[in-house]
Amino acid sequence: MKKLAWAPLGAVALAITAFAPAQAADMKSVAVTAIVEHPALDAVRDGVKAALQAEGFEEGKNLKWQYQSAQGNPGTAAQIARKFVGDKPDAIVAIATPSAQAVVASTKTVPVVFSAVTDPVAAKLVPSWEPSKTNVTGVSDLLALDKQMELLKKVVPNAKRVGMVYNPGEANSAVVVKELKTLLPKMGMTLVEAAAPRSVDVSSAARSLVGKADVIYTNTDNNVVSSYEALVKVGQDSKLPLVASDTDSVARGAVAALGINYRDLGEQTGRMVARILKGEKPGDIKTEVSSKMELHVNPGAAEKQGIKLSDELVKSAAKVIQ
Amino acid sequence: MTLFSFLGAIEIGLIFALVALGVFISFRLLRFPDLTVDGSFPLGAAVCAVMITGGYSPLLATIGATLAGAVAGLITGWLNVKLKIMDLLASILMMIALYSINLRIMGGPNIPLINDPTLFNQLQPAGIEDYVFRPLLMCVIVVLAKLAMDWFFLTERGLAIRATGTNARMARAQGVNTGGMILLGMAVSNGLVGLAGALFAQTQGGADSSMGIGTIVIGLAAVIVGESILPSRKLILATLAVVIGAIVYRFFIALALNVDFIGLKAQDLNLVTALLVTVALVIPQLKRRFAKKH
Questions:
Q1: Measured between CB atoms, which of A20, A98, A104 is closest to B210?
Q2: For a tag on chain A, would you pick the N or C end, based on fewer CB atoms within 10 A?
């Protein structure tokens, strides 16, 4: 029965011999990896594929498409990066920061297009927002805060104090707070912070803003987004309007949001990949931010939170939730 | 499988061999179910990344990360031995505490090390590709760690640690300070895990607060796969089995990433891992049953 113990080794031998199938010369290959499967990241992946198809790259016809998720595991992310680099595809699309870092650390030659990375410069994927002159470019999901604050002004014209509930342990939120602290004073407003380190703290953090803020702004903080209903309750009870930064929260009770649609972000990424497949060098393509922001409004929620949205604003919205 | 992903599997397997050696100490030698590793792995990465970006040499940063891991293990042991908190619970407490501590150390959830000096690019001689050199250097590090461990657990103190795990009451009767041995064993175990975290950060582009997830499963899988490939009661062979187990496990992952032809997909990866560990656990039982019949 000694033989059975060697079964795993047999499988390893099989793994070693399982070479990737050869590709036809006119086939382009794109390898996509994400750190984890989650609705926004999946939407990016699907958007990339749709945009490639629109640009004439169809899977099975002239495109070899492969997708691997690391299922949240960093060791696997590293190994996926190695596999992809070894396969030498025409482009690797890396979705979210940890996956992008693993891929960029593994290759200096294979073109890499990152997506849904909030700050690619801080993550050292690219040296600056200008064309990198390396093998890396991509699309960031950084929120245009100035445009969001303009929206906030339109929703609550006499707002002076902007309350924000967020988790101090979340990097994306910390970045937003830092930027708001310099941006808001220029617009004649101030920031009032309320920390919610756990999602169960969101409600009490929001209540602490009553009387101290004229409006509550929320970013895509995971704690806040996961318990948005708690915020809505406070907003209605104390007539504090909520302005969100993701469009999904509007349907859940925010008054308005000017946000990124991750499917569009994926399509933007896909168009960038197509440019590389057609011969452009990734180092010559500037890192982009989301080109399309969508306005969603909820007049019913506005009424409950004690304000009325202007007809002009409602008319300009891409989606009005009744 | 391409040469690049083959060598990648060896390199990552060797890094996780250090985790597996640490898990082997806690689970097998000390019989201490230790989940601290899910926190001490990113702790090692965090300390190493902060020190390197702060201008310290990669060698010093790697040593610092190892010590940080050892301290984490020491605290878990202390919670258990001195505060009498159940072993599993003590390690869970330490694991969740480390999540916050790692965020504090890094000052954010991610520190990239993409263009910074690392042990690997500093020692890399000209004329050898990095993807070839990294597994070579890892091989040297793992062999040294394994030999040091073999030596340590044959010293009087090491034997006392093993006696504590095998039969604490008997060990105490022989005058062994079992509490102290648990502290020491946990420190060595998590020191190895911290070292692995530091090396991982230096090869994979940086430290990330989410990188500890599943470390314990990978470590255990490596230990169990190793034991079923090379069953032995001798420590020197047992530690070798653990190293082999970690590498074989990586080949299974590489296989799972290459298995379009069987119809498996990306989302099946964790299932493949669970199946692998199950098979490895069942093999020894089958062997026993088979041996009885004949």
A1: A98
A2: C
